[in-house]
Amino acid sequence: MKEKIHLIHPFLLALSPAVFLWSQNFGEVPLREVFPVLFFLLLLYVVAWFFWKIFFSDLQKRAIITSFSLVIVLLFNYVYNIFFDNTVLHLRFRWSFIVIFLILISFIYFLKKSKIDFSHLNKIISIAAGVFILISLAQVSYGYYGIYTSNNKNLYLDTKNNEEVTELRDIYYIILDGYSSSNVIKNVLGFEEIENFTFFLENNGFYIADESLSNYPETLLSLPSSLNMLYLDEPNADRKHFSMAENHKVKDILKSYGYKYIHLGADAFTYFNRYADRNINIGFFSPYQSLMWHNTIFKPIQDITGARIERLAEKFGFLDTRKTQWQREKYKLEKLSELPEEKGPIFAFAHFLLPKGINVFDKDGRYLTEKEAKQNGSIKGYLNQVQYINTGIEKVVNDILRKSDNEPIIIIQGDHGFPFYDNLDIIDNFADPARARELVVPGKYSFPILNAYYFPDGGDSLLYDSMTPVNTFRILFNHYFEQDLELLEDISYTVDSDDETEFIVWDK
Q1: Does one domain contain both 131 and 170?
Q2: Structural domain that includes position 229
Q3: Which is higher by pLDDT, 80 or 376?
Q4: Contact 16, 133 (CB under 8 A)
Q5: What is the pLDDT of residues 32-54, one digit of tens each?
């Protein structure tokens, strides 16, 4: 029995990719997404163990070949990048398959013929795999500990349940990821046609806060801030911020008035909300599960067979992250247009990974392959997706205004601006390079954002050009729900480059 414990490494190595990825993305991965992956990996381990039993009766050899094959299968993307792509070999997937297959055959032959006692090697691998798993689990445990010990002093918000409020309008909170202000898109990125979208919004009664900035330069900080109407205490609290973005104050207040919460998530930490009355999304895998899949050998096999065999391409197309993203955003636009038909009142939160995100749309909404997206480059890709989502949002706005019985409340907002830091090598090609350099936030995104409001019945009289998202719902609740929430000072925070545990004010 003691000797068999040293053969545990195939089991540990099978689970280690999921546990490690969980620990590294702890803030964005709930348990419900981890358990199915662990179950699948456990099943894969059992299949591999009994498969190699056909060839190896010796337990010591069987353990080694099982671990070797599991590493190839589960970590193929890493193996390919390290040994085949980022080297002088620079082999394509097809050739790397052949090389790895030949290595596997050679290794099987070596094990078959070898008279070596592999017990010591099995002990070393088991200890190393065990330590790796323990370190990853310790990181996860530390993350949970941080949730329960941290306390945001501003999290409590004094609100009153005013039963005299009888006109409950549908509320649409639409987040366009990375959508910069029209001034930046026109004057820095050089896209003058953005004025057409601005004109459309204003012509339909929207107030555009022209000088608006995001409060934080990334989504996982920006959304928990705006949805809880407060500033955050610390930067490095991903799990806490994920929890705040999911279980937020805005939906609590609205639910107390009888609102139905409809959540249209993105391929990110907003993918699913367990507190929503209804989730609208597509995708066979969550973002975490999709990343696990992409690291395995199954993903390139899918790509190769899918490209050549039409039936397999259709069958396994749901595993293609790019195609799913293209389908998801179109699907959510369609569903948003249908929501006015829902029995209300409703609060719809819709997060689009547009215009920031993987470039899968051309300006007319056609699907772009990865090769086409690379040819376009990041700037053109971003502007293409600006044009596509503008067209989509125009239709959504028209449909919501036309179909709603009572005038709705609509907020269209960027969670942060354009990622200038990704484009420093071509910054001189911008229409206004000097201004582009001013907007750079080290390591993250810029702050100027689109911030547009359809606040009927006098609600827009409380809006102002420099308002930031942290005050969005404070103003909304004060006007439409007769609350008395104090407006906060409009501040943009970024992480201190000298101390990553602290925020500092961004000096614009």
Answers
A1: no
A2: 150-505
A3: 376
A4: yes
A5: 788 888 999 999 999 999 999 99
User: Going by DSSP bridges, is the β-strand pair 346-352/171-176 parallel, antiparallel, or unpaired?
Assistant: parallel
**CB atoms < 10 A from the CB of 374, how many?**
12
Q: How many domains does the chain have?
A: 2
The first and second tokens of residue 267, run together, are: 């391929």
Q: Is 214 found in the same domain as 291?
A: yes
Would you give the DSSP letter of residue 367?
B
DSSP string, 396-410: HHHHHHHH-SS--EE
**Tokens 């039993």 map to which residue?**
53
State pLDDT tens for residues 460-498: 999 999 999 999 999 999 999 999 999 999 999 999 888
Quick one: DSSP state of residue 280?
E
Examine the pLDDT at 86 and tell me if it is beyond 90: no
In three-state form (DSSP H/G/I as H, E/B as E, the rest C), the secondary structure along 142-170 is HHHHHHHHCCCCCCCCCCCCCCCCCCCCC
Give the contacts of 399 (CB within 8 A, at least 6 positions apart). Answer: 336, 337, 338, 340
Kindly give the residue spans of alpha helices, DSSP state H, lying in 339-413. 370-403
417 and 282 in a common domain? yes
- d(CA 418, CA 178) in angstroms, rounded, equals 5
- Tokens, residue 248: 């937020």
**Higher pLDDT, residue 260 or 377:** 260
How far is it, in rounded angstroms, from Cα 212 to Cα 216?
12
Q: How far is the CA of 205 from the CAs of 175, 196, 348, in angstroms?
A: 19, 15, 20
How big is the chain, counted in residues? 508
pTM above 0.90, yes or no: no
94-119: average pLDDT: 86
